[in-house]
Amino acid sequence: MNFDFEKFKKIIVTGGAGFIGKHLIKKLLEETTSTIFNIDKLGYASDHKLIDLFLENNPKEKRRYFFLENDLSNHGQIHNSIKHIDPDLVIHLAAESHVDRSIDNPYSFIQSNILGTFNLLDASFKNWQSLKGNRKKFFRFVHVSTDEVFGSVEDGGFFNEESNYDPRSPYSASKASSDHLVKSWFHTYNFPIIISNCSNNFGPWQYPEKLIPTVIMKCLSEENIPIYGNGLNIRDWIYVNDHINALLLLISGGRIGERYCIGANQEKTNLCIAEEICLILDNLKPRRNSYKNLISFVKDRPGHDKRYSINSSKISKELGWKPHNLFSESLFKTVNWYIENKEWCKDVSKKTNLYLKRQGI
Hints:
By secondary structure, the protein is of the alpha/beta class. It contains 13 helices and twelve strands. The strands form three sheets. The protein has a seven-stranded parallel β-sheet with strand order 3-2-1-4-5-6-10, with helices on both faces. Helix 7 (170-189) links the parallel strand 5 and strand 6.
């Protein structure tokens, strides 16, 4: 795919130490000549190792990459950083994103996802006003959101760009709020924004508390695999590299003020995901009994959406995007990666426990 990034000399990625963010930064360093600024507060789920490994193998690119440990909820800090960087493009990925944690501690989600987005919008808008000529014309603020803002869809239905918002958890409500803030800056101030709403991502380097890495690591530790309710909640799964390509196409050719839904049309129940991982491991690392015997059902979480499904026809028709990674093949690659990187998972889990203990969580 060809991405037109010549006009974006300086790019900010917020949340660049998160799962999608670090894959995006690696791709930007590989595919563009832009200077990349990673703004991340280094929360419990942050990890910089993928970017570090890339820079070790490509030392010449170090001159194009800068990391700023900033918290978006700090208004003054973010305004100073945006003014200093003077970006041509802002890609906003930073967010608290774990639904269970939003139920236990909603305040941090309100602070990060709503207040943080406002601060970034406010600072970016004021800097955009000072730009001249083509820099102002080509500037973009790309807000990366989730399909969870739409709630749950019945069997046979699909989310699309016209779907009503119906968030069911503090996490999805905070993301819905941030979407509305971003869209209002376009309507009120003509600020050049684009919003994306993507389905569930997976792949290497995903934080271990998410469903797929959790199942893999429980299998490798031969511990019970907790599945909520009856395990029949359905999600549309997309391999992270396909999501990254969609974002780069949106930035290159997406229409200002528009929303684009991104999904791979690969629906799986949570139980099916767990069973497929178990079957892969039965072949790769066989044990006396199938790993499926480790599956256990636990009390369902409050407000658990039944089904997510995305219609991606808009981005396909306008920009020619389509997913290239089949779920089964991508899942196999992902399981293999976690087998080979068990120590990374243990290290980030230890770091998380220390961080949460210091925060009193």
